[in-house]
Amino acid sequence: MESESQMGPTRYRIYMILGLVLSLALVGVGIWGIVGSNEPVLGWVMLIAGIAITVLSIVQLRRA
Description:
- By secondary structure, the chain is mostly helical.
- It has one domain (7-63).
- The chain has helices spanning 4-7, 9-36, 40-63.
- The chain is elongated.
- The chain starts with a helix and ends with a helix.
- The chain crosses the membrane at residues 12-35, 41-61.
- Keywords: Membrane, Transmembrane, Transmembrane helix.
């Protein structure tokens, strides 16, 4: 992953916010997969991945 000094602060923040939005969408799809689908295992995988990416995005945004 590139650092803030390699990209510039504004571009770095935009990418981190985009990652946060997409990871929250992944969490939403994971919840939908668990509740409204016949394949709850895939929903759990998406939910766990979305939560992990969300946490990493928040940590990186707080550092920036």
